[in-house]
User: Fold this.
Amino acid sequence: MQRKLAAIMAIDIVGYSALMAEDELGTLRVMKACRSDQIEPAVAANGGRVFKLLGDGMLVEFASAVGAVKAALSIQDALAKDNAAIQLRIGISLGDVIADGDDLYGHGVNIATRLEGLAGRGGVCVSDVVHQQSVKHVGVQFDDAGEVTVKNIDTPMKVWHWPSLPSCTEPKPSEATPKASDRPSIAVLPFENLSSDPEQRFFCDAMTEEVVTALSKIERLAVMDRASTKSYEAASADVRKIGREQNVRFALRGSVRRQGDRIRVLASLSDTRTGQTIYAERYDRQVDDIFDIQDEITREIASSLQVKLTDGEQARLWASGTRKLEAWEKCIRAAELVDQHKFEENREGKRLLEEALRSDPKYAVAWCKLGWAHWSDARHGWTSDPLRSLNEAKQAAQTAHALDPDFSEPFALLAMSAVQAGEFENASEYVDEALQRAGGQSFVLATVAMVLSLCGRPIDAIDVMHKAKALCPIYPDWYQVQLGRSYYLAGDYDAAAEVLEEVYDRNPSVLSPVLLIAALSESGRTNEAKEIIRAAEASGSPLSITSWSRSQSFSDPSIIVRVRETLNALGVFD
Assistant:
């Protein structure tokens, strides 16, 4: 191996995963045409050579910074003139690299890939030294973007953009959020508890959850997931800021005051662009009328946003609920417990759900939540008979479906139960049914994405997970874990490493680093993979491939073999 100075160009296809999810064969044809018609001629004409092909791009070596910049500008100009179906990001660095045969490694390569992530669509981002050496020879003006800090590079770098950008964009995996929907978009903020009893907080949360669920069933609305808005306080919330953070046009705020058998609910809908109130109403009713209030709020929002409900939507809005207050309250309390995935909480949640169903045996939501509790028993080993628990989960899901055929969550539960039982063909059928009914329900979409990846459909999983994230901008970490796994299974190791590394850096306890290490190694970042292995050993919790593999449910067993071989090569054998 030899060290040398080289200009490195990193090329990335913008939105590659979304393009592949939409049309794999068509995208591959366009990529090959772009490589042969625009990239390779420009590289050859400026003395460069492609030394590594990636799933969504390539790495190119040049003897000079001038040659690299000229080639980059030539490529982007040609694509723009041809109105090409794909866009590229290009980053260029000049630095020390290590040559190992025809391949190159080292700091210069790492910098180029980071710069590529900062380039705009159809643009070029270069380091300061590249700009200094090329500015007098390339005939275009680069804009000074100032100093930026990028992941795994210790010191800030000064960078230059062509064409000009108002600011640096985020690296590749973060930018894959789908375009904003043309549908009216709304965020429902947590209803404020104005009661003297702090225990009524759960009642307000339940009210919020029910309104979100009802609105999510309207196909003409894009409703942000409850998990993405629960950190806001309705009383002090700045709706303009919420509009920017959640990428929504409207925000619903509300409050609940409960005293004895009386209840007062205030609700107001605001335009997040102007802050103007579109609709505001006060409801003074008996507590038992809470369901009518929820219905009225939902209908008022639909009317205010000029969304006409079809007959089928009118029926679906109220189909999976109950009209019995006792059952509703117990189901909401139980759901909060079951969602914690802890043994004692899960057991108490089952007890409350069984009581709710004794009060209202036709409560589809309660049946589905009870099914998830049984599934958790099997998944976490809280039962001596996992198959029996899975069968109970399936039976509960089937009962919920029979009570409400348009309810999507039972199919997500059936799909997860089928995967847990190794019935992957059945799981695929269930996810298709869930997708037909999911509408704007982020949790259902994310669960479906998880099942799709386990069933050998990672491209579909990536697409569905991005839709789930778009509906839940402040999404839970497990969304990213599943997205990273899907990228890995799709063979996009760079994207997998970026996504999983982001989660690991923020919250190491949320995932086993086994797949992150495999992704880093597969993408050529073996030193970083070894650092994580050493950190795990130093923490007193050495890696166990065996433990990780037991927690996975891949339809293709060769995936476990591949991961094991990758980690074995890095010195991990358990």
